[in-house]
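for the recovery benchmark. tokens below, seq after
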């Protein structure tokens, strides 16, 4: 299996940091209104957890269906934890519709990214994985070794 490009490997830890910020900033009174004054509470939930889903979708490696379902399940659990934490705050209260907005935002983002991934042409898919070009616009060809290729050890010849 080809390893992920280095920049994609940092996305799941970044998602974890973002989740921590969501928990901290989301429980400060009036913070949501200061960040996006015209957005409703449900839009903020969908945006925040949709962003988490995007980071996880691009940063994780698994078949598209398993990745999508796993991320939606994870976001459902993280959203439930967020709502449970809100019950401990004096100025906040848990709302099942907030949790539904979390899951809906995750589902929408994962559906779009999964569709793009499945419909992505092979050349773009290779670029996305970090293979196929040397960084200077020159196409790389896979190196072949072994019998009949003119390379390899003397044992192969």
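predicted aa per position
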């Amino acid at each position: 299996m080809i390893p992920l490009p280095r920049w994609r490997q940092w996305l799941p830890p970044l998602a974890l940091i973002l989740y921590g910020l969501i928990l901290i900033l989301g429980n400060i009174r009036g913070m949501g209104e200061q960040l996006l004054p015209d957005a409703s509470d449900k839009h903020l939930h969908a945006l925040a957890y949709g962003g988490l889903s995007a980071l996880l979708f691009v940063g994780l490696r698994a078949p598209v269906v398993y990745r999508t379902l796993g991320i939606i399940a994870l976001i459902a659990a993280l959203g439930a934890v967020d709502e449970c934490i809100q019950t401990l705050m004096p100025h906040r209260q848990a709302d099942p519709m907030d949790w539904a907005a979390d899951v809906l935002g995750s589902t929408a983002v994962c559906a779009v990214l999964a569709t793009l991934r499945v419909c992505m042409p092979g050349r773009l898919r290779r670029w996305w994985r970090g293979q196929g070009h040397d960084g200077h616009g020159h196409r790389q060809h896979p190196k072949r070794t072994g019998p009949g290729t003119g390379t390899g050890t003397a044992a192969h010849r």
